[in-house]
Automatic annotation (TrEMBL):
It comes from the Bacteria. Belongs to the truncated hemoglobin family. Group II subfamily. This is Hemoglobin. PANTHER family: TWO-ON-TWO HEMOGLOBIN-3 (PTHR47366:SF1). It comes from Paenibacillus aceris. It holds the Pfam family Bac_globin. The keyword Transport applies.
Amino acid sequence: MSEQDRSTLFEWMGGAETVRRIVEAFYPRVLKHPLLAPLFPSDIGPVMDKQYMFLSQFFGGPTLYSDVHGHPMMRARHMAFPITVERADAWLGCMAEAMEEVGLPGDLRDFLLQRLKGSAYHFVNTPEDE
């Protein structure tokens, strides 16, 4: 693919294959993290599929998530879970490690994480002391 053909973040990061690899590197970290693991079901497969669809769409790829689940409404979908700033930080840390593992260049990784920070902190719905 020529540089001229790469018009979305999704394409810049390597498309569907890279998004899938990130998701597959991300969730083992989440399931081992003491703050995050309790928020996720033991059958993580469906969660991984949704994350793949969402990230594809979020980064400018096909509208996979909306096509299957409707409007993302991510804050509303996450309200049932106690999300603190500390958990948002942990989530972003796991994502950074996953992106590094799959070999995204540092500048691209930093840019993608900056985009995800807005969402991660928007989901915070619980004070730290709870």
